[in-house]
């Protein structure tokens, strides 16, 4: 069976102004280890799709399974990286990276080693004792990526993680993420509206259209990073 299956999923938000069909029909499977980019215009339903995969929004119809289990809520074994890096301002960079671990099982030497490895990969180990406000936007996003990877998630969900950054920082972040990827190789869903980013990072691109909100193209990217 596939690692992840999104089976005839639909999402309708009920609002004061009426029903909004955010996802009309999503139906696809993902193999373990695939890096899948979801590309599409603003408002086409990308975030909604990812929230449902991550168990942060219920589906209105259809179902989503990961590794044999139906998604019914957020999971501690998933990594979540969102557009705005919501780091805890009163905690150090290192404590922010370790935050998911503290919640789950308590820290061990291995977790500290992993935090060090991740922060070194993104060039921020020397900043481990700084507070988030002492860092630039790009640096904070790199911290958020390390936090998303600290618990060795089996599925990494990223929603436009670099969209608040300028073009040069985005290129740096793409390179940092590609490095992390080549090293840890997890299954990932990466939402973006940048074709360039999608093609650079992913080995498969799902293109979403707006009305109706469906996956209109499913493209394999043959390119391998050198
Ligand atoms: P994208 O991530 O592609 O920009 P979204 O999933 O954020 O798309 O939004 C898809 C559609 O659903 C849009 O029309 C948006 O306005 C609507 N929408 C998103 N979230 C909500 C919500 N919580 N309540 C009502 N409508 C929403
Ligand atoms: P932004 O997206 O906010 O521009 P960047 O990540 O591009 O953030 O970093 C902006 C500035 O922060 C850099 O010009 C540099 O001075 C400093 N900086 C970023 N990363 C490091 C690092 N690893 N070591 C030292 N300084 C850094």
UniProtKB/TrEMBL annotation:
Leader peptide range in chain numbering: none
Transmembrane parts of this sequence: none
Span of domain ABC transporter: 7-226
Keywords: ATP-binding, Nucleotide-binding, Transport
Single Gene Ontology MF annotation: ATP hydrolysis activity
Family: Belongs to the ABC transporter superfamily.
Protein name: ABC transporter domain-containing protein
Originating species: Rhodoplanes roseus
């Amino acid at each position: 069976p596939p690692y992840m299956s999104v089976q005839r999923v639909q999402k309708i938000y009920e609002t004061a102004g009426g029903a909004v069909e955010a996802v009309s029909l999503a139906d696809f499977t993902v193999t373990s280890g695939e890096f899948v980019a979801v590309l599409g215009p603003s408002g086409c339903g990308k975030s909604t799709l990812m929230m449902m995969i991550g168990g942060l929004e219920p589906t209105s119809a259809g179902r989503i399974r990961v590794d044999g289990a139906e998604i019914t809520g957020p999971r501690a074994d998933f990594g979540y990286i969102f557009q705005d890096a919501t780091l805890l301002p009163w905690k150090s960079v290192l404590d922010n990276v370790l935050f998911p671990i503290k919640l789950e099982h308590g820290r061990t030497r291995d977790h500290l080693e992993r935090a060090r490895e991740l922060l070194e990969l993104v060039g921020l180990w020397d900043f481990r004792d700084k507070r988030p406000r002492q860092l630039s936007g790009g640096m904070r996003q790199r911290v958020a990526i390390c936090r998303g990877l600290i618990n060795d998630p089996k599925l990494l969900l990223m929603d436009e993680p670099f969209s608040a950054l300028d073009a040069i920082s985005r290129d740096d972040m793409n390179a940092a993420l590609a490095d992390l990827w080549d090293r840890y190789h997890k299954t990932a869903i990466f939402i973006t509206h940048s074709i360039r980013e999608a093609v650079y990072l992913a080995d498969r691109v799902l293109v979403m259209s707006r009305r109706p909100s469906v996956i209109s193209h499913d493209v394999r990217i043959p390119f391998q990073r050198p």
